[in-house]
Amino acid sequence: MSEVLQPENSYEQEVQERWGDTEAYKQSKARTSKYSNEDFAKAKVDQEAATEAFVFCFGNGKSIDSSEAQQAVVKHREAISKWFYDCSPDMQKNLALMYVADERFKKYYDDRVQGLAQYVHDAIMAQK
């Protein structure tokens, strides 16, 4: 499951095929079906803030297990849980796998800073 805010129809079909029968997908659909454009904008702000926390850590050479990087991991998980579905650490680790395996996610992070996708992945995987 991605935290893509308003998937295009082509993505929506893929998402439904891959995760349509999961509880997280159902929860996300139930929540987002009630969102206004303003709600989606607020969700984007929260997600961007989580991403920027990773950018700060990566750019300042913080190790993936530093308190700052691990706070970014928590911020990332909390943003997903707040706006889309209950995101456990295990679910977040599954997302992290996609961040390096799926070029669309990798591009999202690496367009910010080259190497960020791997850093986000590694920081999420390092959580205890």
Task: Give descriptors for this structure.
mainly alpha; 7 helices; 128 residues; Globin-like; 0% strand
Would you write up a description of this structure?
- The radius of gyration is 14 Å and the shape is globular.
- It contains seven helices and no strands.
- The protein is mainly α and 128 residues long.
- The longest helix has 23 residues, at 37-59.
- The chain has a single domain (36-126), classed as Antibiotic binding domain of TipA-like multidrug resistance regulators (Globin-like, Orthogonal Bundle).
Short structural description:
With 128 residues, the chain is an all-alpha fold. It has seven helices and no strands.
Helix and strand arrangement:
Layout: H1 9-19, H2 23-32, H3 37-59, H4 67-83, H5 89-101, H6 103-110, H7 116-126
Helix pairs in contact: 3-4, 5-6, 5-7, 6-7
User: What would CATH call the homologous superfamily?
Assistant: Antibiotic binding domain of TipA-like multidrug resistance regulators
Counted up, domains total: 1
CATH architecture: Orthogonal Bundle
CATH class membership: Mainly Alpha
Instruction: Report mean pLDDT, rounded to a whole number.
Output: 87
Q: How much helix, percentage-wise, in residues?
A: over 70%
Biggest beta-sheet profile: none
Question: Using only CA atoms, what is the Rg?
Answer: 14 Å
For this structure, the CATH topology is Globin-like
What's the SSE pattern? HHHHHHH
What separation lies between the terminal Cα atoms?
22 Å
Q: Enumerate how many helices there are, as a single number.
A: 7
Q: What fraction of the residues are assigned to beta strands by DSSP?
A: under 5%
Give unreliable regions as ranges.
1-9
Structural class, from secondary structure content? mainly alpha
Number of strands: 0
- Shape descriptor: globular
